[in-house]
What we know:
Blueprint: E1 2-8, H1 24-39, E2 46-49, H2 53-66, E3 72-74, H3 83-90, H4 101-119, H5 131-148, E4 153-158, H6 160-171, H7 175-184, E5 190-195, E6 200-207
Parallel strand pairs: 1-4, 2-3, 2-4
Antiparallel strand pairs: 1-5, 5-6
Helix pairs in contact: 1-2, 3-4, 4-7, 5-6, 6-7
Protein name: Broad specificity phosphatase PhoE
Organism: Acidovorax soli
GO molecular function: phosphatase activity
Amino acid sequence: MGTLYLVRHGQASFGADDYDQLSARGREQAVRLGEHWRERGQAFDAVITGTLRRHTQTLEGIAEGLRTTPEVLQMPGLNEYDSHALIAAIHPQPLPRPDTPELYRHHFRLLCDALAQWMAGVISPQGMPSWNEFSAGVRGALDHVRQHHVGHKVLLVSSGGPISTAVGQVLGTAPEVTIALNMRIRNSAVTEFTISPKRLMLQTFNTLPHLQALEHADWLTHA
């Protein structure tokens, strides 16, 4: 059997005009994860990412820490949903920038509500696939790993939505549980699946082994 390491991207630019860009902290998180793995002799037989900029930038940071230049398979099915389109589907009025704790919480309350409606087929956010199509993209990536990488160590860099969807598919969780998992995944966190020919099995979820030292106590972020 092998192991699939699913990594959420480092901290992006929440609240900015372009979210799809790692912050300085996000790059530090990614580099530190690569360093952590290099210190332990970790290596990967295959590397898979989505096609978003924050995915490729996170992988670049990890590769810098590992001191390696991996070959990469990009899979659009690992790209994140469009949170702005989701929220606009249930709240078409413009929202203020979420730059206070209350506005931040309000943003994510709306997002959770929109996710539930999207997953139930109640709304069809503009420019987005259906929930079934989104899920199929994630399932396709997992099937690829299971079919081609038994016995291998595989690194997969994506976003909170696809990773929580992957966990939900492996565990058979209800939509509301998948949403709750999505909201808890931290930047640069690692989730591990064991790979066998017939199935994937969850081993760890949302861990930050590279940020356990006191000097990294303020590196933990969610958005």
